[in-house]
Structures are given as structure tokens and as C-alpha cells.
Amino acid sequence: MKTNRPKIKVPLQPLDIVLDLISATLILITIIYTAMNYGDLAETIPTHFNAAGEADGYGSKSMIWMLPVIGVFTFLLLFFLNKYPHIHNYMVNITEENALKNYRFSTRIIRFTNLFVAILFLVIQYMMIEEGKGNNVSFGSWFTYSIIGASLILPIFILIYQQKINKS
Q: Which of 53, 61, 106, 107 lies 20 to 30 A from 39 at CA?
């Protein structure tokens, strides 16, 4: 994909650094927590939960490593994608004048997405491990509805805010 968008380096702000560090830390905690509890797991563990937060799918305990691996891959993919904001999708024409504010907003969205995924994976991993150890830790349906709600509300916020920053 060839574009005429300016290729500028978006300077990191303290919030950007904090978001990346928290996301990386959560992924690391997921891996450490999994490693510490792997030996205590039953041979068959829950691998899927229904909308009410109850386990409804089971698999081998080695499947417990799937989320940490996907989490690391997702974190790294989104982290490196942020190095190239000129290839992101935008709803406005990117010019020299509006590039920095749109690139900063786009990279910030990706950082928050990375954080959201890291939190989500950590919570699901916790549920899988605790259920795999025989503990009942159902979060109930509020967890599922919160994720769905956030997934619907956040894009609306993004659309409104992007229009706001480009009204000048």
C-alpha cells in the first residue's frame, strides 16, 4: 500500500510509556502465573466459558499456554505496528498539518487496545487456571456484558474524538 502520508516519528508522551509498560507487565504476569500454577492443574482444564462465565469446553492442560502465547504475539504485533502510524487507517486525509495529532491518537488507540487485550487475557487465564485447579471462580454474566459494552462504546468515542481533533 503506497500513500503520500508524511512519515513522522510520533514522540512518546508519559501516558504512552505507562500504557506500554502496564500492558507488557500484565502479559508477563500472565506467563508467570501460568508457570507457577501449571503443576497444580488437572489433566483436563476448562478452555471455554459461556456468557454466564461457566466453563463449557474442556481440553488438555497444555492448552493453558495458548493465551500467553497469543498475548505475547498480539502485544508485539501491536507494539511494532505503532512504529508505522502512516500505514494505519484514517477517516480523514492526512497532511503535514494534521499528521502528528492523528498519528498520536491512532497510536494511543492501539496502546489502549493492547492494554485491553492484556487485561482480558489475564482475567480469562486466571479463570481457566483456578477452574483447572478445582476452584469455582465464575465472574457471572456481567463480565461478558462489560466486554461487549466496552467493545461497542469505545469505537463510538473514537469516532467522535477523531472528528473533534480534525475540526480545525
A: 53
